[in-house]
TrEMBL record, chain A:
GO terms for biological process: organic phosphonate metabolic process; organic phosphonate transport. It comes from Halogranum rubrum. This is Alpha-D-ribose 1-methylphosphonate 5-triphosphate synthase subunit PhnG.
TrEMBL record, chain B:
Residues 346-379 are annotated as: Disordered. One of its GO terms (biological process) is organic phosphonate metabolic process. It holds the Pfam family PhnI. The lineage of its organism: Archaea, Methanobacteriati, Methanobacteriota, Stenosarchaea group, Halobacteria. Residues 346-359 have a biased composition (Basic and acidic residues). This is Alpha-D-ribose 1-methylphosphonate 5-triphosphate synthase subunit PhnI. InterPro entries: PhnI.
Length: 148, 379
């Protein structure tokens, strides 16, 4: 289980979380009293996805992925988020949450709980996908005796 | 001959565009939403992302809707959008072993570790037109297990255990060719070939690979495996320096195993690799055949890297083929003049009494000019 108090884990939890959850939590941080400074406006960018092919283990460029990154500061603590797709509000919300937890904002515990809850939901979805796939695993039957 | 610059009404062009847009909203049916395109036409969306070289499912679904289902046009729209964006960076190189596979079949190994997982496919049932779609979920009543997801061992590693695939020498990770930023020069490095094949047009990849199977080549592989799943995309976190997953992309992967007894002193195998965005098994398999064929560097079309890479890109071929329908008045006028000059110099009679149809009426006469020896149709 990822630890939302750890920066890298938190980055991954935010990146995988749905937009509604992130925007809702960021609205709570933006209470009118917490000064939030935008260091990097959220904007779609390209991330070239490199893959190591398995024969020569040589990396090559599979193609680019659209991502949106943003960076903010809250109480002197920086927050950075990168999310998939063209998703400006999700990215800036993620950066706000990252900084809010780093700054130990009043909402930090709630943010961490929500990020973990969202991960549990995703894990459940993935587990179901896996078990659906496993249900299509072939069980071969030998045909040696069928002629006898 | 005098060239006459002409222009035609922008209003007419706008009307033609309006008429095109009308086709999308015509009729009594509700317009299909971008979300519906993304969820219900996921294969088409995947193909468009693959051929556009850009993973962005929502934008690809929008492009499909805008292009009214024309995959090549939609891929073009994605490439055009891509050209407006800055590059953040390269991801850290993903290992295919990290794939969360929901389908994996191995035509080579019946008892492949992890089992033959068919996943979502209609490969083994009849392909018949369905006149009565059942909109309910047919898996609702399944009695599912509750196992933790596992990673499936790559077949290449199984072969490596048997000594049939050697451990490769370390490669330089920092010098990866990027064909979106530098032109492909021949002989092309393998990373450039894989990148170009990965964003090749599905039909072109399939056709060129098929040519090898039909005898115009030496590669008729056995597939080590075909996998469909999601592959993590990771960056180095700017604060911690640790690898961090940003997202995952749906991909199709295949490896082909090609015995090349006559080509090698040490009879092992040659391999072709295929990896593409989205669920597109024929393209991934075709890519393995082309990758393996190009490595042979033979005389057949599919073995010629320059031929394959020059023809496999859908945006290139679509653009060049379709540009022919745009006005070529001056080009054609020039060809007419040259043909007339040649005929006159050879003393041939004008065709059909020699009435000219170019309409510009002015300019020099054919006899005033030096006739070319060959007629070129270069634009």
């Amino acid at each position: 289980m990822a630890d939302p108090t750890e920066r890298t884990d938190r980055f991954e939890l935010i990146a995988a979380c749905d937009a509604d959850t992130l925007v809702g939590l960021a609205d709570e941080v933006l209470d009118g009293e917490t000064p939030v400074r935008i260091l990097q406006e959220p904007k779609p960018q390209l991330l070239m996805h490199q893959v190591r092919e398995p024969v020569e283990r040589r990396p090559f460029n599979l193609g680019e992925v659209v991502v949106t990154a943003a960076e903010v500061t809250i109480a002197g603590e920086r927050g950075f988020a990168m999310v998939a797709g063209k998703a400006e509000s999700k990215a800036v919300s993620g950066a706000i949450l990252d900084a809010a937890v780093a700054a130990n904002h009043a909402t930090a515990d709630r943010i961490c709980e929500s990020l973990v809850d969202a991960e549990v939901d995703r894990d459940e979805t993935r587990r179901r996908q896996w078990n659906e796939s496993r249900a299509t695993t072939v069980a071969f039957e030998t045909m040696e005796d069928e002629d006898e | 001959m005098g060239y006459v610059a002409v222009k035609a009404g922008e209003e007419v062009i706008r009307r033609a565009e309006d008429l095109f847009e009308k086709r999308r909203v015509d009729g009594e049916d509700e317009p299909v939403s971008v979300e519906q395109v993304e969820s219900q036409f996921s294969r088409l969306v995947g193909q468009v992302m693959s051929e556009g070289g850009l993973y962005a499912p929502k934008l690809a679904a929008r492009a499909v809707k805008q292009a009214q289902g024309d995959a090549a046009e939609a891929a073009f729209l994605l490439r055009a959008y891509r050209s407006t964006l800055e590059r953040y960076d390269d991801s850290l190189p993903s290992s295919p072993d990290a794939m969360f596979a929901t389908r994996r079949v191995s035509p080579a190994y019946k008892d492949v570790p992890g089992g033959q997982i068919l996943g979502a496919t209609k490969d083994y049932t009849q392909r018949l037109l369905d006149f009565e779609f059942d909109e309910s979920d047919p898996t609702d009543e399944w009695d599912l297990g509750d196992d933790e997801p596992e990673s499936l061992r790559n077949v290449m590693e199984v072969l490596r255990d048997e000594g049939l695939v050697s451990d490769p020498d370390p490669v330089d990770d920092t010098d990866v060719t990027d064909t979106t930023r530098e032109p492909v020069m021949f002989p092309a490095p393998r990373d450039a070939i894989l990148q170009e094949l990965a964003r090749g047009e599905t039909g072109a990849v399939t056709a060129l690979a098929y040519s090898a199977l039909r005898g115009y080549g030496q590669v008729h592989p056995t597939l080590g495996e075909v996998r469909v799943g999601s592959l993590p995309v990771e960056i180095e976190h700017p604060y911690t320096g640790e690898s961090a997953e940003v997202t995952s992309v749906e991909v199709t992967e295949s490896e082909s195993v090609v015995p090349v007894y006559a080509k090698r002193d040490d009879p092992q195998f040659s391999f072709g690799y295929g990896l593409v965005f989205g669920r597109n098994e024929r393209k991934a398999i075709g890519m393995t055949i082309l990758d393996a064929s190009i490595q042979l560097d033979g005389d057949e079309p599919a073995e010629d890297a320059e031929f394959v890479l020059d023809t496999v890109d859908g945006i290139d071929s679509f653009g060049f083929i379709e540009h022919l329908k745009l006005p070529h008045y001056v080009t054609f006028q020039s060809i007419l003049d040259r043909i007339r000059a040649i005929r006159e110099r050879k003393g041939l009679d004008p065709v059909d009494g020699g009435e000219r149809t170019d309409g510009d009426g002015g300019g020099d006469t054919p006899s005033d000019r030096e006739a070319p020896q060959a007629v070129s149709d270069d634009d």
